[in-house]
Give the backbone structure.
Amino acid sequence: MPNAQEIPQIATELVDMSREYLRQETLEPAKALGKQAGMGVGGAIILAIGAVCLAWSLYYGVQLLLPEGEWWVVLARGITTIAAAAAAGIIGWRLSVDSQ
């Protein structure tokens, strides 16, 4: 059993040890996880921008192939919408198949 004079020293050591444990076991892994999450979010943003640019280029490509007129513009938008929805559906289907 510790003496009365040793109790403050033991309490200080306990607090220091707890702080060190907290830093090693929670803060450092959380920082590493945050870095990985940031890279994932950055990659997702870049892929989203690429998908929007791809859909945009598909729209203008279809619009160039069709004759001029307001209904042909509507058809180009419809074709682009169907193609983008099909691509999203295929990607979602493949992701759900891989996770099972």
